Amino acid sequence: MRHDMELPTSEKRPVRSSDRSWEEIRKEFPILQQTIREHPLAYLDNAASSQMPQDVIDRLVWYHSGEHSNVHRGVHTLSQRATNAYDQAREKVASFINAPSSKECIFTSGTTEGINLVAHGYGRPFVDEGDTIVVSALEHHSNIVPWQILCEEKGANLEVIPMNDAGELILDDFDEMLDSSVKLVCVNHVSNALGTINPIKEITDRAHKKEIPVLVDGAQAVPHMPVNVQALGADFYVFSGHKMCGPTGIGVLWAKRRWLEEMQPFQGGGDMILSVTWEGTTYNDIPFKFEAGTPSIAAAIGLGAAADYLDHIGMSRIAEREAELLTRTTERLKALGGIRCFGTASEKAGVVSFDIDGVHPHDIGTILDNEGVAIRAGHHCAQPVMDRLGIPATARASLAFYNNEADIDRLVAGLYSVKEIFGV
Q: Which pLDDT value is given to residue 3?
């Protein structure tokens, strides 16, 4: 590779048909071509972390081999290359979620940091003693614990939108919950434990009638369906790169400009300042106000490449493919018998949580791994969901567009083995 000339940016992606077959797309993920314990890999743990296509891997290598330098303020060529690629990545992400401005997109380490940023930057200035934060019964721990910490610190209250046995939110009394003490509603777009797709537009509309802002955890939505933050109406929307075919250690907080202007910074340091004197500090403009220190440059550029990749396939096409895989998986597990599925909402993403009577989910996961099938087993960082269902844990198969019917067949065959081993 020649480094004496300006490198092209990510946009070195090979020209491919946007309607190429799913099997052609699957071949673009090198990790899926391997064997595990002498079996072809059936990767069904996508809700925890998706895999990266070769395009994203190549973009990361390209950055490290020809562009690597610190961003912003540098006048030399490498810094200019890195800065351009980093800034372009922010533009790509903004376009991917239809944000009004890329300046409203804050790079974070992931969904968890994005929520904590809001808990600090919005929660500490705007939440007082006696106020209330509303969360849903379907939340990941990352959208519970920061609010518990804030409520304990402030003397505020945490209230929970209940869920029914199907894993759907019960919104009958939602309006009554939204009294004058409520300062924020926090809800996930898609449940990581059950796959429930929540009615975000309805929730935001009802909250906004009482001038209450809404934070949405979009970690499980952005990789699997079209997301338009303007149409959804949320005030804050957070997601992670590693669930959308990008690298780990990178995510995005999108927030309406009015809140970003009023919020206090989460961290102090370089790049989030305009000037520093012994008398005080003047903060930088957004988004830099919330991005202290050297950012995860390569990961951000990789995230931009992942957004490009998914956009090229088409998020509507991806959603349709995953809905087909979900239907097939659910039908096959029901036909197997002895499998109890959790989360039967009418609107679902590609998550199937289940158990087998008399078999611990960890044992299910271990036996499946011996046959090359990767699933998740545990409480999925959603212990209140498990408590509501009266179970300690589930086995969870989570789907992505690059999965195929053979993966589902392998899952079913592995569960036959589980039932045979345990005699159930």
A: 42
Of 128, 243, 136, nearest in space to 185 by CA: 136
Chain CA centroid to CA 36, Å: 26
Q: Which two tokens stand for residue 341?
A: 């599925």
Cis preceding-peptide flag for 14 (omega within 30 of 0): no
In the block, residue with structure tokens 């030399």: 76
- Nearest residue to 289 via CA among 322, 311, 255, 266: 266
| Mutual angle of helices 77-96 and 54-66, in 10-degree steps | 150
Task: State residue 254's pLDDT score.
Answer: 98
Q: How far apart are CA 316 and CA 10, in angstroms?
A: 23
All structural domains of the chain, each given as residue ranges with its CATH number in brackets, are: 39-49+314-422 (3.90.1150.10), 77-312 (3.40.640.10)
pLDDT for the residue 399:
98
User: Rounded to a whole number, what is the distance in angstroms from the first to the last CA of the chain?
Assistant: 58
pLDDT attached to residue 13: 56
Q: What angle do CA 32, 404, 312 make, to 5 degrees?
A: 75
Of the residues 151, 186, 341, 381, only one is catalytic, namely 381
Q: Which two tokens stand for residue 188?
A: 């996930």
Residue ranges in the chain modelled with pLDDT below 50: 1-10
Q: How far apart are CA 120 and CA 129, in angstroms?
A: 15
What amino acid occupies position 407? D
Phi, psi of 288 (to 5 degrees): -65, -20
| Residues paired with residue 240 on neighbouring β-strands, in sequence order | 251
Report CA torsion sign: 145, 227, 110, 252: negative
Q: Exposure pattern of 253-273 as b/e (b: 16+ CB <10 Å)?
A: bbbbeebbeebebbeeeebbb
Buried b (16+ CB within 10 A) or exposed e, 380-394: bbbebbbebbeeebb
Cβ burial 38-47 (10 Å sphere, 16+ → b, else e): eeebbbbbbb
pLDDT at 7: 43
Q: Is position 381 annotated as part of the catalytic site?
A: yes
pLDDT at 19: 83
pTM across the whole model: 0.95
